[in-house]
Structures are given as structure tokens and as C-alpha cells.
Specification:
Layout lengths: L8 H15 L2 H21 L10 H10 L14 H4 L1 E4 L4 E4 L5 H6 L1 E2 L3 E3 L8 E3 L3 E3 L2 E3 L3 E2 L9 H16 L4
Antiparallel strand pairs: 1-2, 3-8, 4-7, 5-6
Helix pairs in contact: 2-6
């Protein structure tokens, strides 16, 4: 009888190291959350990847009047949406998000709720049919196009995969 014995101690040792690395993903998740945060910041800087729908002429006129145009599409103020983006991670996940209530309508698009517009101070809001000042106006809501800022490009995904592979394979060889 012919017998072949394989000494697999090295393979077993490598598998143990691999299992240990795969059970401690926190360092990889920290790096991945930073990759995702960088990707979202790049989305704001480039005006979307792919490019977002341009602002409406009315919105541009309003922002010109307020001194916030020219500027970035989803950035009106330093403390707004772009500044609210944060990254977090734990041993099994990496997350990037925002706590701004209005973020979802920019990410997914939609219609704002109808609302009442009233002037500030004692000024009249508008002239109704040219006869008298109006104290309030019912606004039907606005259609907001989707401008997905929480998105990753293929290059970002490849970088995430490479980061995970480097983490798992480091010190196994």
C-alpha cells in the first residue's frame, strides 16, 4: 500500500491567523469609514458623481440675493448638510451619514410639504392681483430632484475591497 502524508501544520497555522484577523475587523472598518467619508466629501466638491441636476433659476436668484451664489449646489452655509456628514464604525460595520432632517429629500428627491409663507416684520408679502397687500401665501410645495450625496463610485468600492484584503492578508503569510 502506498501512503501519502501531508504536513499541513503551516496551512493550519495560516488558517488560524486568517480567522483571528477576520474576527478583528475594527481597524479595517475604521479605514473603510474614512474612505466612505472622503467619497462623500468628493461628491460635494464635484457637485455630484455623476453630476447633480442644476439648481432651478428661481433658487439661483434667491441664493444670489442672499449672497450664497455662486457656490456649491447642496452647500448654502458652513454649518449645513456637507458639514454634518460624519463617519462611524465598529467591529462589523462602517457607516457614513448625517443627522440633518432635510438630508433625505436631497438624497432621494421628492416634494416638500405645502406650507404657509408669511413676511418677516410688518412688510407686505405680495400684491394680489394688484389690489392689496397679502399677509400670507399658501405655497404648494416644491419638487426637489434627487442629488445623491451619500454614494460611492466604483473606484471607492475597489478601494474598500483592497483595504479589507490588506487587513485580512497582513501578517498571514
Amino acid at each position: 500500500m502506498i501512503e501519502i502524508k501531508v504536513d499541513d501544520r503551516q496551512v493550519q497555522a495560516m488558517l488560524k491567523k486568517l480567522a483571528a484577523k477576520a474576527s478583528d475587523l475594527k481597524p479595517a472598518m475604521r479605514a473603510i469609514s474614512q474612505i466612505m467619508l472622503d467619497a462623500v466629501e468628493e461628491n460635494f466638491e464635484q457637485g455630484g458623481r455623476p453630476k447633480w441636476t442644476p439648481l432651478s433659476p428661481g433658487t439661483i436668484a434667491e441664493r444670489l440675493r442672499k449672497g450664497t451664489w455662486p457656490g456649491q449646489i447642496l452647500v448654502k452655509s458652513a454649518g449645513g448638510l456637507a458639514a454634518s456628514i460624519s463617519a462611524s464604525y465598529d467591529a462589523t460595520s462602517a457607516t457614513v451619514g448625517t443627522n440633518k432632517p432635510y438630508a433625505a429629500i436631497h438624497q432621494f428627491g421628492g416634494r416638500t410639504r405645502p406650507h404657509m409663507i408669511r413676511p418677516k416684520g410688518k412688510k407686505a408679502l405680495a400684491w394680489a392681483g394688484g389690489r392689496h397687500p397679502v399677509k400670507s401665501v399658501n405655497h404648494p410645495g416644491s419638487q426637489i430632484p434627487a442629488r445623491p450625496f451619500l454614494s460611492l463610485m466604483e473606484d471607492d468600492r475597489r478601494e474598500i475591497i483592497a483595504t479589507m484584503m490588506r487587513h485580512i492578508l497582513r501578517e498571514i503569510r
